[in-house]
């Protein structure tokens, strides 16, 4: 992977996650400014997760069949720009609901295919351990930049300008997809491998189960962390600083990840991340003083940063060559699609019927179940 291509991948991650950093925290406020009620907003926001259940795998299957990951990415990125631009003309709620479904179905292709292309290119150079984290950290930086920059803009000028930020990020990201490159598959890689046969591997099944539980746990965190802190009396500025601390922690891990991969096996890193997640969420649930909350956010380096990189690396044990995009998409579907959706729903029920602190107790339990599953994974 040349320096220019690495720069293109880094920039792609930056603008993709800048878009996520706009839509995840601010789109609900934008919909509220347009007169939507809580139930309507909840249905609109649910499209982020619902489209991750089937969308990534469908796009991954198409990319592997066509053996053209980057071509599919470019096509869906262009489609995303056109679909997003419709926001300037939509007034009806049903139209907005359809818009969110179509938009997120198309966008759900970009990260699994982008990750698959990145991993393929880096593995050819034997550079995954050294370079993946330093490319992926630009996504975290993009997220932080948009959250802080757009937040300050909206505070001063209002949320109505959100569509312009979103369209600009998508247009730049689309242009960057034209600069991405990955090596062609070798003839040996193009041998016919049945996806259904790979799915029967019991170690893969345990691996996917473990990831389901980890993202289940993090869905509890992502959905209710800000509300949890607000109930304890923290200001919005303090809540924002704690969120920022977690993202900075993952950036630092991504930068130095090669040191960990050089010293520990991928499985040992993953097992450690699950145990740290159990401790992190238990501390947040039942000992939530300010020092503990700061330490818990620093643990995000392990429970997200280390877990994500190690999971992407272990995924290559079963999915390479013509199965790579489908494997990456399956990982996204099982963990972020199904795990994220079920985790958020269960956390909402616990928040309403039990107590807010038990939401993070549930996250700790889910992390422990993930640890049990990961213990059963065996890789060469």
What features would you describe in this structure?
- With 380 residues, the protein is mainly α.
- The chain folds into 2 domains: 1-184, Growth Hormone, Chain: A (Up-down Bundle), CATH 1.20.1250.20; 193-380, MFS general substrate transporter like domains (Growth Hormone, Chain: A, Up-down Bundle).
- 82% of the residues lie in helices and 0% in strands.
- It is built from 15 helices and no strands.
- The chain has helices at 3-33, 38-66, 69-85, 93-107, 110-124, 128-157, 162-177, 195-199, 202-231, 236-263, 266-286, 290-298, 300-315, 324-353, 356-375.
- α14 (324-353) packs antiparallel against α15 (356-375).
- The longest helix has 31 residues, at 3-33.
- Mean pLDDT is 88; it is low at 187-191.
Primary descriptors:
2 domains; mainly alpha; Growth Hormone, Chain: A; 380 residues
Layout of helices and strands, plus pairs?
Elements: H1 3-33, H2 38-66, H3 69-85, H4 93-107, H5 110-124, H6 128-157, H7 162-177, H8 195-199, H9 202-231, H10 236-263, H11 266-286, H12 290-298, H13 300-315, H14 324-353, H15 356-375
Helix pairs in contact: 1-2, 1-6, 1-7, 2-3, 2-4, 2-14, 3-4, 3-5, 3-7, 5-14, 6-10, 9-14, 9-15, 10-12, 10-13, 11-12, 11-13, 11-15, 14-15
